[in-house]
Each structure stands twice: as C-alpha cells, then as structure tokens.
C-alpha cells in the first residue's frame, strides 16, 4: 500500500534509522514558450529534458521510496523573456499530490505559482546537485521546490515528518539570499520563496500550519474510508489553523496556497455534511476568502461540483 509505505518511511526517518535510499519524485516538467519571440526554441526542449532528468534522478533524501511510492508532482514553466546572454524569466506553477488511504482519490498538497523565476542557462549546460553550496540559480529553485514537495508530503503522513526537509529549505534560502538572486530576499515580496518558508516554519502560524497538514490528511481524509463523519470532523477541526494564520498574518502566502490547493476539494468534502458543519466551515473561511464566495456558498449549501 503506497500510503502505508510513506508512513513507515516518515517514522523511520524521524527515528534516524539506517534505510535504503531511493529516488523520490515522479515529476512531470513542461514549458510554455508562446510568449517568447523567435523561431529557435530548441534550448527550451533541452532545458525541459535537463530539468526533468534532474528532478527525477536526483536522490534528495535518505528515505526509502519504491517506484510506486514516488511523489507525483508537476513543474509548469511559462517563459516570458529570453535574452541573448541566456537569461530566462517567467513563472513556475508547482503542483504535488498524494494518495488518500484505501481509495482511488488523490489529494492536492501544493498548487503554487512562483512569479519570480529568473535564471541563466546555456543550451547543453549540465545541472548538478550539490548539498552545501549553491551551484546556480536554476538548481537552487529546483532544490527549493523538490524539498518543499517532500516537506509537505512527509508532514501529511506523520506529525512533523517533514522536519528534515524544512531544515534543508532553510539552508537553501540562506545560501540563495547571500547570492543576491531574484526571489529569495526576506520582506522583498509577500509571495516569494523566502515568504513561503517563513509562513510554514516561524511562530505560531507555522506551527499551526504544519499540524494542519497532518491533521487534514492523515487524521481527516485518510480516515474517511473507515468513517466519513469522523474523517470529515478532523478536517473541520484542522481548518482552525487557517483562522490562526489569518489572525496573525492576514497577508500570509500560506492562505493563498491553501485556497489554491484545497478550496475545490472542500466543496466535495462537505457536499453531504450536516448543515451545522457546513455553516461552521463557511463562517470560518468566508472572512478570509471573500472573493471566493461562489465556491464558499457551495460548501454552505452542500452542493456538489
């Protein structure tokens, strides 16, 4: 069972037990270059292959992953600028998911758009993985999102199971901030990579979010195959973390990350819930996401998508 395998890997990692390494990601990489002028775009196919190879062959952790336990994820680059000296700018959509126990359903963990993608790449340039240094801006970005995917996934299977990867993310951000590259500076942008790290690792808000990842998925969704009502009740309880974050930092990037990953799913989770529970969730989320009233009303009314 894929789910149980990940739980065991999480527990073993926390216990620092010696385990067999295995590549962790099943990553689809895509590039949209429609906004780039010129006809010679072969560099982007070479780059796509290089990024795909990097994400799918680099061993990022000491955890044990069999082939069917790899984390499904997707990197979608939208390239907006390309200069003659190899500078490439654009956006990157990062998505990851994990299976729900005893079901064919997969739940989205991350659905995030990074609009600060800016790096230099020459066609055929190798992408090398290093742990204690920053090879270049592109591999730093790829490392950041590889470890973010791992941190979310492991947190969803065990309490604080992603801790080693959050620590690794701190190291990546610190090295990148020293480089002066775009997208890493603290307080420069409320939705850059530094802001993402801060949201999930600092203060009461970070603690609440990490706990929510576990409670929502392992105590909530994973239990719904055994008891829909008990599983949904755990999901409901876990949502208090969103209110905690909103009260502490109403502009936190974690709030938009949660909405983009989970709002559609919540419509389905509460489609057959008692009215009192649906109203409770609506009243909690509506002040935080007032522009998403259409989806929130579906939760309140128990409408299926």
- The structural class is alpha+beta
The shape is globular
Main pleated-sheet profile: 4 strands, mixed
State which percent range the strand residues make up: 15-25%
What distance separates the N and C termini?
Answer: 29 Å
Give the quaternary arrangement of the chains.
Answer: single chain
Share of helical residues: 40-55%
Indicate the mean pLDDT: 91
Unreliable stretches, pLDDT < 50, 5 or more residues?
A: 11-20
Description:
This protein has 305 residues and is of the alpha+beta class. It has 11 helices and 4 strands; from the N terminus they run αβαβββααααααααα. Strands 1-2-3-4 form a 4-stranded mixed sheet. Helix 3 (137-157) crosses helix 6. Mean pLDDT is 91; it is low at 11-20.
Explain the layout of strands and helices.
Layout: H1 2-14, E1 25-32, H2 42-57, E2 71-82, E3 87-99, E4 106-120, H3 137-157, H4 163-179, H5 193-201, H6 203-220, H7 228-238, H8 240-248, H9 253-269, H10 275-285, H11 293-301
Parallel strand pairs: 1-2
Antiparallel strand pairs: 2-3, 3-4
Descriptive terms for the model:
305 residues; single chain; alpha+beta
Summarize the structure.
With 305 residues, this protein is α+β, with helices and mostly antiparallel strands. It is built from eleven helices and four strands.
